[in-house]
Amino acid sequence: MKNERVMTGRHFMQGNTACAEGALAAGCSFMAGYPITPATEIAERLAVRLPALRDADGVFIQMEDEISSLAAVIGASWTGRKAMTATSGPGISLMTEHIGLAVGTETPCVIVNVQRGGPTTGIPSVELQGDLLQARNGSHGEYRIIAIAPASPQEMFDHTVLAFNLAERFRTPVLLMADAFVGHMHERVDIPEPEAIEIVNRRTAAPGFDIEHDQSFLSPDVAPMPLFGRGLKSHVTSSCHTGTGKRNVTDASALDHFIRNLAAKIDNHRDEIIRVEDNTEGADIAIFSCGSVHRVALKAAETARAAGLKVGTFRPVTVWPFPDREVAELSERVKSILVLENNLGQLYHFVRSAASCPVHFLEPEILGTLHGVDRVVAKLKEAAR
Amino acid sequence: MSLVHPLHKFVRPSAVRTANCPGCGNGILASSILRAIDEEGLSLDEFVFVSGIGCAAWIPSPYFFADTLHTTHGRPIAFATGVKLAAPDRRVMVVSGDGDLLAIGGNHFIHAARRNIDMTVVCVNNGIYGMTGGQAAPTTPQGLKTATTPYGSVENTFDISGLAMAAGATFVARWTVWQPLQITKTIRKALSRKGFSLVEIMSQCPVQFGKKTGMGSATKMLDYFKEQSVPIARAGGMTREELEGKIVVGELLDIEKPVLDVEMARLRDRLRKEAADAEN
Fold it and tell me: Rounded to an integer, what distance in angstroms lies between the CA atom of residue A288 and that of residue A265?
């Protein structure tokens, strides 16, 4: 069984293990990582699974730190591999320079952040949604990122597949914003037959591609990737470059082109990228939440409805790009929105700027734990008045 | 009939201007590397060249007409590790400077050497940060006045080749750009070895090291390399005092150890065989 890429069947599985299995199902054959709580089980699972794969020369390597882990992943991706790393906040902080490099060189890869309690070393085993803003803008300069927030072990599988598909489709790094809660939770995970799993593969430059003249970078419609090892003589640089990958570090207009086209690649496809779960039909109040906190939102909405309140839930599956139009449209239909986050208010500000109705915010009573349902219902009653 | 440089075929057509300052050692080294590849009868299509940030990192990128990956400051060996493990059929060469590979990137350098991953690392050691304007490097000689050591450096210096040998590299050599033919011969040998090969090249930076430090012009610096170079065979018979300030050149280490990508392939084969046996 451990030789098969897809472990089809019904499992009682830890979220982090499901993430590793999702990566394999998506076609990942390379992982470089560094141990860190609460993400380590992803590396441990792939250390068992990758070298044993029947149908691919799987590679797992434990690097000397998180900086080199993402570097190795990017190097592997340029040879045509689907590659990933997994870490937690401190590791993401070390990786941020290379997240920017992956964006700038348009390198598909998946970076899992099993969020823990920070800042700094914090508490490694306590979950927090403290890194959502870091995910959006952690690396220097201006750029766009795709980030997805899973809410269950099943979604640790499903959304890892989705993360790889988006990375391949848009030639960009994708962040999977899990947290210690979903990472360490055991729950039922159904893994489909391989044929039932949708797989997206990157568009690549074919032999005969003219590297000196054909566009291999900076297309808003995603240029074909000129992979290494095909005799293409690819020129890949972290410096500002043109559509053929040539370095230009003298013209501001080249920088303008570089930044704008990388952003346009994501912005122009926001409808294809963004996924929301909107269950607000007939609701006066919408609870907005993502990731593990969405589990609280579902329970609180159910309880509030039983108490006679018209409450629905709205969940961004894709945290970044932020579903601003969807929130704006939601705010036309409901009377108010209650934002629940396991932090002091990060997405809250984005909801407020997109919404035309009143927006309330509630953090958990104790950061690092989930909101008590009664407390959320009390807040909903207050908002309904 | 027009004359074409024998190495012209290796140069990216769009890279028409050099970014190097007049008198830089990069040109001598670039031709020594390309000549080694040519003499070995290899195609640039077999290679992936990886470099970091700094003047030396510009040797392969954009000038070598091959797959090149120009990365962040200090990390080329980490990127190269990913390339090599993901595509073991590629020849991987890292070309970068002493500041890049030994200061900010020192950790990746020692761990790649420890793993004995199959790659050739050419470290250009000019003893200074050239691109940023002449600041002290871990290789800057003690006492030297630089932009960030205005009263003279009070730090000890790194022995790059010694570090590579201690960390586990299997082929280590040091030359100066005064010895271009020896560099070519050594790189040919490094290319024929499986494992982590370090080729340290002492090179002159006449603009930052030379002018600002008062060490002199490019030719004076080459004369200095010529005078101070001591072949490894002769160095063995010299005392520590006699070797003070000298540059010991030659092939310093040439041994065999298990190679990371080969061991990984062996592990995969073992696991597949065990699985097949379990099924039967």
Answer: 27
Query: Can you give the C-alpha Rg of chain B in angstroms?
Result: 20
Residues A137, B25: Cα–Cα separation, whole Å? 40
Rounded Cα–Cα distance for residues A72 and A61 (Å): 9
pLDDT at B122 over 60: yes
For the record, the structure tokens of A179 come out as: 């947290």
Under an 8 A CB cutoff, do A75 and B81 touch?
Answer: yes
C-alpha span between B153 and B272 (Å, rounded): 56
ipTM over the 0.90 cut-off: yes
pLDDT tops 90 at residue B216: no
**Which backbone phi and psi does A280 adopt, to 5 degrees?**
-120, 15
Contact at CB, A212 and B61, closer than 8 angstroms: no
**Token pair recorded at residue B27:** 């040109």
Does the distance separating the beta carbons of A238 and B108 come in below 8 Å?
Answer: no
Q: Which string of DSSP letters, residue by residue, matches A3-53?
A: T-S---EEEEEEHHHHHHHHHHHHTEEEEEE---TTTHHHHHHHHHHGGG-
Instruction: Write out pLDDT tens, residues B164-174.
Output: 999 999 999 99
Using DSSP bridges, classify how beta strands A146-148 and A318-320 pair: parallel, antiparallel or unpaired.
Answer: antiparallel
Report the residue of A4, A238, A241, A246 to disrupt the B interface, i.e. the one with the largest count of B CBs within 10 Å. A238
Give the pLDDT confidence score for residue B214 in this predicted structure. Answer: 80
DSSP B201: E
Question: H/E element holding A61?
Answer: strand A59-62
Residue A50, chain B, CB below 8 Å: the answer is no
Distances in Å between the Cα of B135 and the Cα atoms of B147, B149, B159, B177, B200 are 5, 7, 18, 22, 20
d(CA A80, CA A21) in angstroms, rounded, equals: 20
Instruction: Tell me the C-alpha distance between A209 and A203, whole Å.
Output: 13
Average pLDDT rounded to a whole number, residues A341-352: 98
Phi, psi of A29, deg, nearest 5? -130, 10
> What residues contact residue A227 under an 8 Å CB cut-off, 6+ apart?
A78, A79, A80, A204, A205, A234
**Over residues A154-181, mean pLDDT:** 98
**pLDDT at residue B212 in the model:** 73
Residues A189, A192, A198, A199, Cα dihedral to 10°: 80
Nearest to B70 among A77, A233, A239 (CB): A239
pLDDT at A95: 98
Is the preceding peptide bond at B62 cis, omega within 30 degrees of 0?
Answer: yes
Global pTM exceeds 0.95: yes
For residue B69, the SS3 value is strand
Q: pLDDT digit string (tens) for A280-324? A: 999 999 999 999 999 999 999 999 999 999 999 999 999 999 999
